[in-house]
Amino acid sequence: MKRIFLLLLSASVASVSCSGGGSSSVGKPGTKGELIPREKTKSFVAQRPYGMVAIPGGSFIAGMADESFTNNGETAPLKTVTVAPFFMDEAETTNAEYRVFINYVRDSIARTMLAEAAGEGGDGGGKGASIGDYAYLAKKEENLTPYQEYLEGAGGRDDGFDASKKLDWKIPLHWNTSKYPDVEYAEVLESMYLPASSRVGSERLIDVSKLKYGYRWGDMDVAIADNERGVNFLRSESISIYPDTTVWVNDFHFTYNEPLFEQYFWHKAYKDYPVVGVTWDQARAYCDFRTKLKSDYNESLKRKQQRPLRFRLPNEMEWEYAARGGKQNATYPWGGPYLMDDRGCYLANFKPKRGSYMEDEKKGTYTYAAPVKKFKKNTFGLFDMAGNVSEWTDSGYNNSAYGFSSTLNPSIKSKADNKKSVRGGSWKDVGYMLMTGARDWENKDSARSYIGFRTVQDIPEAAVKAKRVNR
């Protein structure tokens, strides 16, 4: 009897220690000796970001299929290429959207300076009644988690984020001088403005030279050369992000554009107009901010969400593929070879005639840029892929790019070359530049009154049909 009891006991122990069907992670991996991943098998659904449309993957003939009137080096030979699916902004980035970026950076800088001045904090009621309310969150928290204690002792995370200097965004900022809570607060906030000696009249203006956005990005060329993704793979940048409003005067000589210089970016009348005066680097910084915005929101949820795919600029082939709207021989984004519809209305905002920058009364008389979504969208649901403002792409510019680039997701990236491809034509261009195959370029550190941008986000090939995010 004793022998039978011992055998039964050993068998029961073995069944407990080797079982993989329970929720415990103790013991060897697998289930019943089989290698079976324990990850949930639920299908991944790509959530469509607000204001974007899904561009299905496919193949198309890239290049100028129509006759080239200029016969220059920008005309590339025809080439069949394949592009993977992605999300794309349905319209160009607007002044209102870019101002969200500006205000975030402005508030971050102000909160950081207030937190430094607040020191250990104080009793302000937690509603911004004194500068003490703006202290770092770590100064207010009494019970730190073991992880927070570890980071504090280790000097912060390796990625540069310092948990001890996390800002408290729940405390409201007061920009109205009549609502400054105390003298210390006033001293910090006033340092954000131009000094009185630099002002025009009595208007208080933010010193935009202080609005810099810092972020990190990975340099794939270095990662490939070093065959690793170590510290040398990372690049840190601090970008001045305020648009260059002087472009309205610099781009055009002997022209009265002062009202646009003074009003185009900040006046509410232009909130739905495409942002211009941004460099290629500023457009990339905006993409990183948009990724951070979504990532921070996901982190704030009780039920953690998967890290969002990053927003970025489209490469040149993605842009051309999206502009064609799924039509192989699309001279223009709307498909046809004409610049007018059957009612005689122009289909884009461009320069229709010599000396005439206005389209027609039926579709709107826009001297310069027009509000986004005023002209007909293409079959992919994208507005202003021709005209209004030209758009930055992520690709470096090369006359022979179509000849040596890959046919699978082709992308030309030459960081040593300052030239970047610009596509779509603008309000100041003639109809030829609006063709889907027409190419142009600009130096990446240049800002123009006729160049804006839109962003894209990758869609994993394994994702099921994308769904629209709720507003």
Automatic annotation (TrEMBL):
Pfam families: FGE-sulfatase. The keyword Lipoprotein applies. Residues 1-19 form the signal peptide. The keyword Transcription does not apply. Residues 51-456 form the Sulfatase-modifying factor enzyme-like domain. GO terms for molecular function: formylglycine-generating oxidase activity. Keywords: Lipoprotein, Signal. It comes from the Bacteria. Gene3D superfamilies: paralog of FGE (formylglycine-generating enzyme). PANTHER family: FORMYLGLYCINE-GENERATING ENZYME, SULFATASE MODIFYING FACTOR 1, 2. This is Gliding motility lipoprotein GldK.
